[in-house]
Specification:
The chain is of the alpha+beta class. Helices cover 25% and strands 37% of the residues. The chain contains four helices and eight strands. A hairpin with a 5-residue loop joins strand 3 and strand 4.
Length: 142
């Protein structure tokens, strides 16, 4: 994959770089609340059961979302975020965190991965299967 790391100043800087032609987004280990503290919420389970008014902390989720929801997530000012952009929906059985590092990239590409965005505070690393995508970003930063 081709790669570039740039400095970002705002959520809009991130959003501008997202490929708007790819609507299949996977976010790995999303933590909706960066502080280690308790908060009250309702939790709907896959069985349709709802646990009401429970206290949670350290919640971490894998999310499959579209571009509209991705924009909302970016606007949450999350300091650390890993965004995968695919050209098709990823299989329900694909667990990215369980893939062996040496084969992870190839497996993800076989499943439609096009771009990977790694946000780490004020730095954004973008990896892409498309060299022209990275070249376009490099040229726009000059």
């Amino acid at each position: 994959m081709h790669e570039i790391t740039i400095e970002i100043d705002s959520n809009e800087d991130i959003w501008k770089l997202i490929d708007k032609s790819l609507n299949y987004i996977f976010i790995s280990n999303f933590s909706p609340y960066s502080y280690i503290s308790w908060w009250k919420t309702d939790l709907k389970l896959p069985t349709s059961q709802i646990l009401k008014d429970i206290s949670v902390r350290n919640m971490s989720l894998d999310l499959k979302v579209d571009l509209v929801t991705l924009k909302e997530i970016i606007e949450l000012n999350t300091k650390s975020l890993i965004i995968y952009q695919f050209d098709k929906s990823i299989p329900n059985t694909l667990l990215i965190t369980e893939l062996m590092e040496q084969s992870k990239e190839n497996i993800l590409i076989q499943n439609g991965l096009k771009h990977l965005f790694i946000i780490n505070f004020e730095f954004l690393t973008i990896k892409s299967c498309d060299e022209s995508f990275i070249t376009h970003i490099q040229n726009s930063k000059k």
